[in-house]
Amino acid sequence: MPSEAVNSAYRTYSGWKRDDYQREHKATLDKDDFLRLLVTQLANQDPTNPMEDREFISQMAQFSSLEQMYNLNTQMLLLRESPVLNAHLIGKHVTWVDGSEEKSGIVDAIVYREGFTYAEVDGKRVLLGDIVGIKEVTERSI
């Protein structure tokens, strides 16, 4: 029986080691990393000196705040990419970077395809993130 427990613990430990090598290293932590750290902390705490309730509640509140900020950020990004919000670009003279070349033209339409919003300029699709300048159409800008 004890050897079975040791083998089980070894398999678990070996699994953690393999996962460490397979995971990509990130410069920042996200909500999943935070939750993983919290669960690991709870699983490996000293049974004779467990985490206090106040500390646990504080960490859960931090996790909740982190998750809400993440969700808000995601919604803001989706809103920024919304074709309806970018309809004001139609008829405007825009400048964008294509590789190392700067190009410009007048926006004919806003198109949403495969999760990305594009400005259609002279039949070409330009990612909104590539646009570096917007101005009203005047006689001089044409």
Query: Would you tell me the overall average pLDDT?
Result: 77
Weakly predicted, low-confidence segments: 5-17
Sheet-strand content, in percent, reads 15-25%
The main pleated sheet reads as: 5 strands, antiparallel
As for the number of domains, it is: 2
List the helices and strands and how they pair.
Blueprint lengths: L1 H21 L8 H13 L9 H28 L12 E6 L2 E13 L2 E6 L2 E4 L3 E5 L7
Antiparallel strand pairs: 1-2, 1-5, 2-3, 3-4
Helix pairs in contact: 2-3
Structure explained in plain terms:
Belongs to the FlgD family. This is Flagellar hook assembly protein FlgD. Keywords: Bacterial flagellum biogenesis. With 142 residues, the protein is of the alpha+beta class. The chain has 2 domains: 79 residues, no CATH class; 49 residues, SH3 type barrels (Roll), CATH 2.30.30. It is 44% helix and 24% strand. It has 3 helices and 5 strands, in the order αααβββββ. It has a 5-stranded antiparallel sheet with strand order 4-3-2-1-5, with no helix packed on it. α2 packs antiparallel against α3. The longest helix has 28 residues. It starts with a helix and ends in a 7-residue tail after the last strand.
Sum this structure up briefly.
The protein is of the alpha+beta class.
Task: List its salient traits.
single chain; 5-stranded antiparallel β-sheet; SH3 type barrels; alpha+beta; 44% helix; 3 helices; 24% strand; 2 domains; 142 residues
